[in-house]
Structure formats: structure tokens, C-alpha cells
Amino acid sequence: MKKEHLIEKTARYIQQEFSHEGSGHDWWHIHRVWQLAQWIARREGANVFIVEMAALLHDLDDWKLSQPNEAKAWKWMEQLGIPPNDQQTIQQVIDQVSFKGAGVDTTPDSLEARVVQDADRLDAMGAIGIARTFAYGGHKNRLIYDPEEQPVLHDSFDAYQQSTGPTINHFYEKLLLLKDRINTATGQKLARQRHQFMEHYLEQFFREWNNHEQPLTL
Ligand code: ADP
Ligand code: NI
Q1: Which residue in 3, 60, 112, 208 has a CA-CA distance of 20 to 30 Å to 96?
Q2: Do 112 and 50 meet the contact criterion of CB atoms below 8 Å apart?
Q3: For 58-181, where are the alpha helices, taking DSSP H only?
Q4: Nearest ligand, CA of residue 30?
Q5: Rounded to an integer, what is the distance from CA 81 to the centroid of its chain?
Q6: What are the boundaries of each domain within the chain?
Q7: Could you tell me the CA-to-CA distances from 167 to 29, 175, 202 in Å, in that order?
Q8: What is the pLDDT of residues 127-177, one digit of tens each?
């Protein structure tokens, strides 16, 4: 099968799998990551087929969304008849994308993984990142904010996975750390503005929380 057809079929499969996802990992998250990763890949000279396939499949076996060891991505690639070498390369990219805690090094070792990781992380930032984070928090019954619970900079993947803190803490535990961990120059340019927007958002959030707004008229 031609590469465009493999991508097209995979996109259709993923669209079905993620159409009713309410935790901020819906089809449109995958679609944005796919498009952005493709764009970054061209600018950075990465293998576009590997990047597109990995971007489309990157959340299929994610620990937050699925049962362990289902290996849906492998099964899908097998079914499509993707050559074993490419399957392995794509799977390696998928395995390196995820954030695993503030103190855990997740620097990818291939250009393709750096590109997909950047695209996924950019979608965790900015206005869309904020929306997704609160969607995830609601999905998991998290409080929006609790002044009595401090953010934790997790130093192991285990500790990060087990955390149940309020959603605002996630900004300090992950989202605000991403800007300095973006791999590519193209990604870094986009990250700057998204980071600033999150900082403004938090300033306003705490202004409202602490009653420090000064309305002009009441
Ligand atoms: P990653 O694999 O790096 O975790 P994903 O594509 O799976 O990336 O999306 C992660 C997004 O899920 C976060 O950016 C955030 O929006 C949401 N999320 C994950 N954990 C939490 C949490 N503890 N609190 C709030 N949102 C979370
Ligand atoms: Ni993702």
C-alpha cells in the first residue's frame, strides 16, 4: 500500500477510536498534533512518514487512556502490513513522546521522536492546553484548585502517575516546565507565546481567587 494510503487509513481508524474521548485526548487533539508534527518535520528535515504515523498513533496505548499491554499500535501496524523496520521505528517514537514527571528525563534520541514530542507538548500549552487540562481534571474528578495542596515536582514516573492533585497544580508540575524542554528550534518559537499566555492566565486566576480585582464600576 502507498504511504499516503497508510496514513489515510490510520487517520480514519484513529478518528473512530477517539471520537468520544472526553479527557482532552479526543480526535481533534490527535489531528492537531498530526498536522503540527508534519509541519515541524518538514522544517526540521525529519522523516515525514514516520512522524505522521507516530503522531496519529501516539495516544492509542497511553497509560492515561488505555489498559496496559494492549499494544493496539503494534496490532494496527501489523494489520496494515507496515515493514517490521518501520514498525519498530514508529513504536520507538511513540514510546518516547510522553511526559513522565518534572524530574524524569524524557529527551528523545531520534529527530522524529523530538518532532512528535514537540507537537504533543505544544498542544498541552497555550489556550488549548488550558482547555485540555481542565477537561482532564473534570474527567478524573479533580478539584480545580485547592490552596492547601502544594504542587509536587515528581522525580519518578510512578509518583507522577499516582498523583491526584488539583488541576491548577498540573501547570506547575508539567505545563510551565515544557517551554524549556522543547527540542526543535521551530517548536521553541511556537512555545514562547503559548507559555506567556498560560502565565497571564494564572495571574488572572489568582487575582480573582484572592479578590484583588478592582472593578471600575459596580
Ligand atoms: P503526555 O503523553 O505528555 O502526557 P498527552 O497527549 O497524553 O501528553 O496529554 C497530556 C495532557 O493531559 C496534559 O497536557 C493535560 O492537559 C492532561 N493531563 C494529564 N495529567 C493531568 C493532570 N494530572 N491534571 C490535569 N491534566 C492532566
Ligand atoms: Ni497526545
Answers
A1: 3
A2: yes
A3: 72-80, 84-97, 111-122, 126-139, 157-162, 167-173
A4: 2
A5: 27
A6: 3-208
A7: 19, 11, 12
A8: 999 999 999 999 999 999 999 999 999 999 999 999 999 999 999 999 999
For residues 90 and 124, what is the distance between their CA atoms, to the nearest angstrom? 22
In short, whether 108's Cβ falls inside 6 Å of ligand 1 is no
> What is the CATH code for 3-208?
1.10.3210.50
Determine the residue of 18, 21, 107, 133 to mutate for testing ligand 1's pocket, defined as the one with the most ligand atoms within 8 A of the Cβ atom: 133
Q: Which residue from 212, 210, 120, 218 is spatially nearest to 174, judged by alpha carbons?
A: 120
Residues 6+ apart with CB under 8 A from 87: 74, 77, 78
CB of residue 24 inside a 6 A radius of ligand 1: yes
The span from the CA of 89 to the CA of 65, in Å, is 23
Model pTM greater than 0.90? yes
Q: What are phi and psi of 154, to 5 degrees?
A: -65, 135
